[in-house]
Design goal:
The complex is a heterodimer of chains A (about 100) and B (about 200). Chain A is mainly α. Helices cover about 75% and strands about 0% of the residues of chain A. Chain A contains three helices and no strands. Chain B has one domain: Cytochrome c oxidase, subunit III, four-helix bundle (Four Helix Bundle (Hemerythrin (Met), subunit A), Up-down Bundle), CATH 1.20.120. Chain B is about 80% helix and about 0% strand. The longest helix of chain B has about 35 residues. Classes of the chains: A mainly alpha (about 100), B mainly alpha (about 200). Chains A and B meet through helix 1, helix 2 and helix 3 of A and helix 1, helix 3 and helix 7 of B.
């Protein structure tokens, strides 16, 4: 039994993703120079989330995996969101 | 097919992903610490964050993104039979890890030279929010740095497997998993960089 059946991602796809990641990094640095107040953190997090989406989907081949892997990833992220959300709900609204 | 070794490639890869989820939760805890203290000390986080060097952080971002590209391409190269290209790319990734750690060495040296390190007397004289910022900064980037070193060791180990023929175009799950670990290291830095180095306002 060999592993041959899985999808081979062409070099070009990876290079395009890498260029996109570099552009998004430049946008993050540029966005940080503009004073948006509390919004700055959310812009930074939004761009970081977009970048990690690209890394997970293409570099880590999640796009080509079976639904089992995608469901597991979404579950882990949901747990992380609950973990962060519940903590912040407590901390931010503590009087 | 008697005597043929059975391998569960999907299981091996899924196991790696499960491990990566625990890593995400580990760093998630550190990001919770960051967000809780950012909410408590917004001004101090900005004044402390401005003391970090964007060039070190930005440079290391480029190094890690490029190293991730190398690892991603190396898998395609191995599967297409270009073993030498694959090994060259993995060597390039290990070189990127070394560059990252050298940058980190100079960055931390400069900070420590200014008396900014956990437990220092200078740090204790700073406002509490700045002290917290630098402590979490050292904790998070330190733990991340350990991951960079471990990732580089795993990649060197994988290169040995490729040289000895244990990992090849028909059986590459070890390279796949080593690559997944390396991409995680990159992923975490994608969040560390803007949160620590770019909070200017």
């Amino acid at each position: 039994m060999t592993q041959d059946h899985a999808h081979i991602v062409p070099y070009r796809t990876f290079i395009i993703v890498w260029i996109a990641l570099l552009i998004l990094t430049a946008i993050t640095v540029a966005a940080a120079q503009v004073n948006l107040g509390a919004l700055n953190v959310w812009v930074a997090l939004g761009i970081a989330t977009l970048k990690s989406g690209l890394v997970v989907a293409i570099f880590m081949h999640m796009k080509y995996e079976s639904p089992l892997f995608k469901i597991a990833l979404l579950s882990a992220l949901a747990i992380l969101a609950i973990f962060i959300g519940m903590t912040l709900l407590d901390v931010l609204y503590r009087s | 097919m008697s005597g043929h070794e059975h391998k569960d490639y999907t299981g091996a890869k899924f196991g790696m992903w499960l491990f990566l989820f625990t890593e995400v939760l580990l760093f998630g805890g550190l990001f919770i610490l960051y967000s809780v203290y950012l909410a408590r000390y917004p001004k101090e986080f900005i004044s402390a964050g401005k003391q970090l060097n964007v060039w070190f952080g930005g440079g290391n971002t480029l190094v890690l993104l490029t190293s991730s590209l190398f690892v991603a391409i190396s898998i395609t190269a191995l599967r297409r039979g270009s073993t030498r290209l694959c090994l060259g790319l993995l060597g390039g990734t290990v070189a990127c890890a070394a560059i990252f750690m050298v940058n980190k060495y100079f960055e931390w040296s400069a900070k420590i030279g200014h008396g900014i390190y956990p437990g220092s007397t200078h740090l204790k004289e700073l406002p509490p929010g700045e002290m917290v910022f630098f402590n979490i900064y050292y904790l998070t980037t330190g733990l991340h740095g350990i991951h960079v070193v471990i990732g580089a060791i795993v990649l060197v180990w994988t290169m040995v497997f490729i040289k000895t023929g244990r990992v090849h175009a028909g059986d590459w799950v070890i390279l796949e998993n080593a690559g997944l670990y390396w991409h995680l290291v990159d992923l975490i830095w994608i969040f560390i960089f803007p949160l620590y180095y770019l909070i200017l306002h």
